Task: structure prediction
Amino acid sequence: MPKTVVKFGGSNLKSKEDIGRIIQVVKNYRDPVVIVISAFYGVTNYLIDALEKARHDESVAKITTAYLLRLKREALELYFADQHQLTKISAEIGIQLNELERFLQGIALTGDASAALEDHVLSYGERISAIFLTGILASLGIEARVALPESIGLVTDGDFGSASVDFVKSTASVREALSGDYISVIPGYYGLSLEGKTTLFGRGGSDYAAAAIARCIGAQSLDIWKDVNGFLSADPKIIENPVPILQLTYNEAAELAYFGAKILHPRTVEPLSAAHIPIRIFNITGDADVSKPLTVICAEKVVSKGILKSVTFSEDFGILKLKGSGVGAKPGILAKVTTALHGAGINISSVLTSQISINILIAKKDLSIAYTLVSAIDLSVVAKVQIIDDISVVAVVGNGIAENYGVAARIFTALARNGINVLMSCSGASPIVSYFLVKSTDCIAAVKSIHHEFFETF
Result:
């Protein structure tokens, strides 16, 4: 029978006590699983900060490794009664920390770090977590082994910071390496280029790493353990009693993740949809029953009664606006702009155009750089380049949105009823999602208005 890939994220590793929940979950699987684990909660951010500080302060190397050693040792002492075992696993973690310290010291000496070195340094949070969890499982008599991406042959395309797995080169070696009758514990977040360089899958990329490994081994399922109750009709921090979503298609889940739902990394479904490997979402703070997922993501299409499955939002986007009387009709403008943005590694999320305006939706963090780049291009018909960053994107997702009349009318009516103006909207780019741009101050009210219309009115 195919193995199950089980993913534990940073939200499962906030405290020493969280390890007990992970252990119980692992015990509840009848057969050996493949575990993909993230760094302890906050560790990746800590390493990012250390990378920056190390460029100017050589003391950061020792401070960083001392902090990480103390963090892990406190958790280890909670579960290790045998001093010999504690010393052994602490020594293995110490080897990783010594390597990390040397890299940070090298950055301090040069005052700089290459993209390859940055990726390598940031991978240590996951490396240490894998060694840590393996040691704890072994101390409990559970046969487990660390399986580093470099040892199992998880090959990437070599794109630092946002790599993708090369399945042609990876599948056979990964499948063979993980075929043993024991638990394998893999640090998520990174793979290796053909040249042997560490390449990260992007922030939150451990979900993608787990999905890629599940595809390589032909897993029975990818089980992701979170600290929330699966996908819901809206963010429970905003809506008091959101409706649970028992099943989503791969595309619905991808769109929800893209437009703000934090349950999954947006790329998680990429490796699994063609292979029809389901994703099962669990809440680790529940009863740890591995047979009762809260949400299942699969190929089967289900159209809900109200069409909408969920309403979500993101405050991470902004608009780069190009204004001019003929920008919509002038050939080549968009090509020049997109080429410049692509060269700077800036992703374009959407483009909405008219005769007098081109509106480019990009991440807010990239707006100032994009503005500088585009302003420097010779665009004769562009009278003004403008940044709009006081907006939020509200998205509604569900199979049947494009085919069922009246959905958009109900959305706009609900928003108008509550005095919310839609600045821009887009439907049809995907048959399962429509999204709207509203003022940031109207975002929460917009989500509440749409949710009330579709989920609370009977």
